[in-house]
Amino acid sequence: MLLKSFxxxxxxxxxxxxxxxxxxxxxxxxxxxxxxxxxxxNHTDLGELAISSPSAIxxxxxxxxxxxxxxxxxxxxxxxxxxxxLGCASITDAPVQRWVGGRMGALARSLAQLCNRDPSxxxxxxxxxxxxxxxxxxxxxxxxxxxGWIDRRLQADPAVSVAGLxxxxxxxPSWLGTAYAVSKGEGILDAAARLRVECAARLLRExxxxxxGIASEAGFCDQSHMNxxxxxxxxxxxxxxxxxxxxxRQAASLPLAITPSPT
Length: 263
What we know:
The protein is α+β, with helices and mostly antiparallel strands. 41% of the residues lie in helices and 24% in strands.
């Protein structure tokens, strides 16, 4: 779904249904892929990587990749661009670069939210330049083991409290909240809200269940709570998400045609 197009860049929302297989494909222009919700396994020349949290992937023109989507589906923002339009150094000389969590995850999340708010050309260019600057300074370490444990606990019960999680690992809640956000690129409460949204979004897109029932199934207090959370996480209402069903990607998407910037 094309969201916006400029003379040198295009923004598109791409949604894959649960358990979809996106065949290997490539783009005619460089692409920045920004995680929004869901989970998938990304296959590139770098190998396979399971992704289920804020992240960004940069594909140079012609870089082949394929995805295996999880049982909750996957939504991403793709920004296809002319490097001359960007007006700064490329992100990387490698065909593919992937950043998951950390400062880059936070920058990717912020840029995805900007794209959902109808950005101007200047705002989009500035957001991409911030992402590139962050990539140049990124020195990631493997996340500590407790981060994976927190993720599994949130998957099992998004309603678990930060205080309860902190007690289980013997840390202060404020320390845990800060350390988790630094490692993952989003806070614990944001992650818990996103997990509820992922569950509800799949049901909205792939079933005819009533909104009130979906709200209950996904762990929201009520339909109003679901509406507020969707607006905060996705910038859209559950009703708008239900209409996405007509735009679910059925196969590998074709690259968008964009007009090169004048030389």
